Amino acid sequence: MFYPYRRYVLKLIQVFMKTAYFTPLLFLTLILLSACKNKVVMSVSGSVDYLGEANISVSEQPLHYKYSPKKIYSVTHKENGAFKIDIPISVNRKLIFTIDDQSLSLIADPNDKLNLTISRASFPLDTDFNSIHKDDYEAYKNYLSETDGLDKLIEKEMNNFKAGLDNSALELSNKKINIAEKHLMGTHFEHLILKTKGELLVNKIKSVEYRLGKTGFEADLERTRILEQAKTDDFFTLESLESQRAGIRDVTHYYARTFGIYDSVNNVYGKDLAEYDIKRLAYEELNEKRLEVIEYIEDRKAKAYAKMFLVAERIGEVELSKAEPSYRSYLEEYAEFTEYTEFLTYFYDEIKSVSPGEPAKSFALKDKEGNTHTLEDYKGKYVLLDFWAGWCQPCLDEFPVMRDIYNDFSREDFEIIGISTEIDKDVWRADIEKFENPWPQLYGGNGFDQETFKAYKGGGIPFYILIDPDGNIARYNDIRATFNLREVLNELIDE
């Protein structure tokens, strides 16, 4: 989108550059003026028939789906549910309207005075839009209505695929694409068509792993066929990758799995390890295969965008000493793409601040009785922070072994503190009653947006931080009860 005032600014720059009075300072001033104009304001108002304790917000879709700093604007509403907010927007970002964990995509247009009439019980499906883009929003509503429940059905069918059962997973993924094309072609929501095509590609790659070892199945040929077709279908263009966002991460991830690396690691250790542990044990092998996918990308900026995701995952998943060469190499190779390099620099510095040896991040959180617990309360012992939620099966899988370890160590030496990432407090209360873990259970609220989780740069759960008796980080997200926690504690406490 190119705004008229920017044309005038650029004309001024050209004029001044031809004069003897032009100075570098003046040039910088004009550039800053032009840059400031990239930010505009969009008005969003409306009403919700019932809210209760619901949180309403509008946010910009960040560059990176998980690690980018998020610009979230809380929406204050009146008792009758009416609200109004002016949102500063960037012309290259999409807007997301959220009520708790349910969301709507919005068209970012400063010329629009968008009004939403929301029925909370049926949000987002029955939302009414008063907008200059009303036709586009109606098409979007029709798309949401026709695909309602389809993602869960696709997931169920993919599980059948994984189990070797007859299924219609890929047919349903194609159906979603057809629905998106029927409703969204030619609208401001056309990027969702590209997103659905990315989802199909991910499912196709997954299907290769599910068929490994089957008689007559040639994985190499199938992998190549899928990726060549993806290239033909323009999956690897910048526009497509930006619409998918995490799609390139998922494709490279599942592609790497199709080489049997996970099975090899499990065989070495004689047991099924969590994906988290396998990634750390075989990261170089996995990354080598991930990069094979990137070679299908021809456009330089698209390749820089895709590699940004891989480098970010590397920074977030392995020790910084192992991630740093890739990080430094990226900064040098793609220096011209400042948005990408600035994000990676930001994220690298963020992870460095929570690396072993750095002071642990303090907190003050309440248990179910309302008592406040702080990190300082547990100084003088090793403390494992366990970020979890009842819906997270890998979190729950750790509990039996965690209980054994907890009972085998003295409370003078070792403590576990459970910090919930559950949004609903009542659900959290029910979960802690259900699982009956003997260590302190604290409520952070706000899901992954809770302050303690964000302070430790959490990206997903289960997420574990081990803090030493002096209050410094001893291990950062590289320990797990079912894998190495006991050995780590034995070594540290014996010292």
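Above is the first protein from milestone M3; the second protein from the same milestone is given next.
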Amino acid sequence: MAVSEIPEKFYDLVLRYFDGDLEPAELDELNGLLRSDDQLRDAFAALCVRSRMVREIGEPERQAEIRTADGSAGVISQLKLARDTAQGQGRRGIAPWGRVLAAVAALALVSLVLFWGFQQPGKTPRFTAEPVVPGRPDSGQALGKPAKKKYIARLVQVVKAKWGEENPGLKKGSRLSEGTIRIESGLAKLRFSSGAKVTLEGPAEYEIISNDLTRLLSGRLSAKIPKSAIGFKVDTPTARVLDLGTAFGVDVDEDGATEVAVFEGEVEVELPGPAESRQGKRLITHGNSVRTEAGAKEISDALYDISKFRKTWPVTAGMVSTAGMVKFAPPGPLSTLLEHEDDDHLVILPERGSFTVSKKLKVRANITVPGEYSKRGSMETGRIEPGRVLASYLVQFNPVEDGKEKRETKNRRLVGIATFERPIAGVITASGLLRATDKTLGGHSAPLVVKGRGLEIGTRRPLDIVTLSDDRKTLVLDLHVSGGQIDQIRVLVEGEE
């Protein structure tokens, strides 16, 4: 199949996939196209890499580097040239591939123009250098002035967030005091000083009251609460959710009706109002959901629908994005996730949270520096120094069982990218190192007994290819797997202090 013969529909789906606009049925259609044709997989793999490179130019961290190294005029000129050239070719009959790259370049150009526009001399920013959340409506705090009270949380991740008028200057890294956050669209992840992590999906209105008390007035959130933050509370118009050491999601509709889904552990749900007028409290365990409504005197059971939290949960668990035939696991206990089956995706499972590498804990990984790896000779197993704080993720291909046996299929190719919130310290791809680190790094009670679980890099054709980006946050995976076995790699990410 020539490039000119690649279906236009494919490029439309890919572009919308990168924008996060695909419906479930369209996502299935895209995966079907990827499974059906090797050239489409080649095209998608290349687009994943190229779009990532261009997208990074629009990120604040990359903008600063580019501005310092090259100057704004040079970068913008280059992007304009790329865009104008692509548009000119389009008038003469540009190939779909060119239109995709032109669109990506144009998006990056917009990001850069906006960035430098807001940084021009003479323009007064609406917030100080370190923006803070406006105070509560009754506090009398003026916009843009530092909060008198101590900071309670920090905005640690932002994904395509559009803020309400009350929060014009919020960005990744902003420190947050008590006050209200309104997000119209996109995602925003907050980390409280207690260690609690909350991800909001817009549209949502969320109030920070204290280090252990918040209020979700409308919208959706996912929360992951460590032992240090047990007792964290989320109030809604119709319920109070009290964490008992867990991960959970809360969804509040326009009428204040609330659904609570427990991903792991347990929470306590309580109705508002006088105790004599309601049916007390309910303890909700993982895999269950409840619903509360205005004026109700009891808490009702609800369908456990984790699809509502498919956008917020990965971000809460430390991901920024996945693309292609890679996806993050649905929420749930690790023991259950290990059995999660998927014929069409490499699935990322969160393992052990933040832990410190000690002198006794010798941590070695097959990939420790950025680059493309396709041969054993290109990998030099390195040691991760003691004192570093890490978190572990397992990337797994576990095909669906057909009766008692794993579904036997010919060798297939799975291509995609995974971007983590924090830099990657190392990647373990060898079966021996995987077994040796299951308990210490993965947090499993015993080594996982899986035959041939590591990648066979450099031992056969076609080759498995693993690429670690220069900023160490993105993995590009181009892997050949067999339906009769399980393939795994372990990703070690820098954890939070």
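Note on the second protein: Confidence is low (pLDDT under 50) at residues 53-147.
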